[in-house]
Specification:
alpha/beta, 6-stranded parallel beta sheet, about 15% strand, about 450 residues, elongated
Length: about 450
């Protein structure tokens, strides 16, 4: 099939590469010539394990193409995927403006039947808005061109996006025509050979499914973080509780790990969008608001534990931070709790030595003033960050941090303080080695 993908941010690039891997001819378009040049020379604008090789292989095979010519991409597509990252626009009004602008471009270039699939995370009703605007544009041109619209939300996790796309749990498809259903069934049959993973539903239902899924994930995280605070008050190790709760087949272990709060672009923004939508309808989203409020409180828990040990003024203190991205295997720092922690430490007078395998370029830009002032040192190696620090904080659970050399850490630290924001280490063993250890929900009385 001839597929065109509008947008080369995270969702667009992963989708284009995976469709091409299955033998489709894919044209991926965006407005940035610099991005096109980088991609044609093997560079990627995002960090995702395995994606670079997949893009290069399919480009060399002649199945994956990059261009800034959106008009041609629309005109030649059997299926046109909208993956534009309007999600980063904070207000629904700005997102709506982006949808309408894109619809005008599509209407101006349709020449034959095309299935237009909204894969971007946009306010509920955006796909229908897209349809109406495209039809208005065609009517204005006196063009009788058939088209369908569909909603196909993505459920990709940064760090495992290729696996999620190639071997999905489910493929949610919002359609309202038999022709659109046939087209999408044909396209996605290669991704559901083991068993049928296609779930067809109404268009608005598909749009809401994405938001509801992320709200559920955020709810599990926030609930477990709240239980962790209660565990500390009760003198209980939350890890024992987590295992007991997760063993229930009705609950399971996924997203049941206490930590320093969720981040990234999707969960925080999707919660915010749902809350706004509810308030606009004069409905009080009590649970959604509680999830968001708990997450904001959780983002200061590590800072509070540092203050408990060193006092409210951190002048003259140096804190080592392992991890800056909002999750491992990602270079994204959007709403990262690790970034929030660094900001809190700097504002309290501390100096920070930090290391992250992928996110330091973004952090250098974000904290450029602190870096220039010598308050924040972005180190080349994880153990360089620990040198002469008063405490080590594990903020993001990258694999290289899972089994570090604790003997080296103890020699490098000025004080043997480890604050484990991901409950990754064994507190009993570390305490026998002379470390002052604190985790999340692990302050045993």
């Amino acid at each position: 099939m001839n597929i065109s993908v509008i947008g080369m941010d995270y969702v667009g690039l992963v989708s284009a590469a995976c469709f091409a891997e299955m033998g489709n001819q894919v044209r991926c378009v965006c407005a940035s010539q610099r991005w096109i040049d980088d991609l044609q020379h093997g560079g990627l604008p995002i960090h995702e394990p395995g994606l670079e090789a997949l893009v290069q292989n399919n480009s060399k095979a002649g199945r994956l193409h990059f261009s800034i010519d959106i008009d041609s991409a629309i005109a030649t597509a059997d299926i046109l995927f909208i993956c534009t990252d309007l999600h980063q626009l904070r207000t629904t009004q700005d997102q709506l403006h982006g949808v309408l602008s894109l619809a005008d471009t599509i209407a101006a270039n349709l020449t034959d039947y095309t299935l237009i699939v909204n894969k971007a995370t946009l306010p509920i009703g955006s796909t229908e808005t897209l349809r109406v605007r495209i039809q208005d544009g065609l009517d204005t041109r006196n063009q009788n061109v058939e088209f369908d619209v569909a909603a196909n939300p993505e459920f990709l996790k940064e760090g495992s996006a290729l696996e999620d796309f190639m071997r999905p749990d489910r493929i949610v498809l919002g359609v309202d025509s038999h022709r659109a259903r046939q087209q999408l069934t044909h396209l996605y049959q290669s991704f559901s050979r083991h068993h049928d993973k296609l779930i067809f539903m109404g268009i608005e239902a598909a749009e809401l499914t994405k938001y509801a899924a992320n709200a559920m994930l955020a709810a599990r995280i926030s609930l477990m973080n709240e239980m962790a605070s209660l565990a500390e008050l009760a003198g209980v190790d939350i890890e024992e509780v987590r295992k007991g709760v997760g063993s229930d087949s009705r609950i399971g272990y996924s997203y049941l790990y206490p930590g320093i709060g969720y981040g990234g672009m999707c969960l925080p923004q999707d919660l915010h969008t749902l809350i706004d939508m509810a308030l606009q309808q004069n409905f009080q989203p009590l649970m959604l608001q509680a999830i968001e409020a708990r997450n904001q409180q959780q983002k200061v828990r590590i800072f509070e534990k540092i203050v408990q040990r060193f006092g409210p003024s951190l002048n003259g203190r140096t804190i080592a931070v392992w991890g800056l991205s909002f999750k491992p295997d990602s270079d994204a720092i959007h709403n990262s709790s690790a970034i929030d922690l660094v900001k809190q430490l700097l504002e309290a007078g501390a100096n920070v030595r930090a290391y992250d395998p992928a996110a330091m370029p973004a952090a250098a830009v974000h904290f450029s003033a602190a870096v220039d002032a010598g308050r924040l040192l972005l180190c080349e190696h994880q153990y360089d960050a620990v040198s002469d620090a008063d405490a080590l904080v594990l903020a993001t659970e990258w694999k290289p941090f899972r089994q570090p050399d604790f003997n080296a850490i103890k020699k490098l630290l000025k004080q043997s303080v480890i604050i484990d924001g991901r409950n990754q280490y064994d507190p009993d063993w570390l305490r026998t080695q002379g470390f002052d250890y604190a985790g999340i929900g692990r302050e045993i009385k």
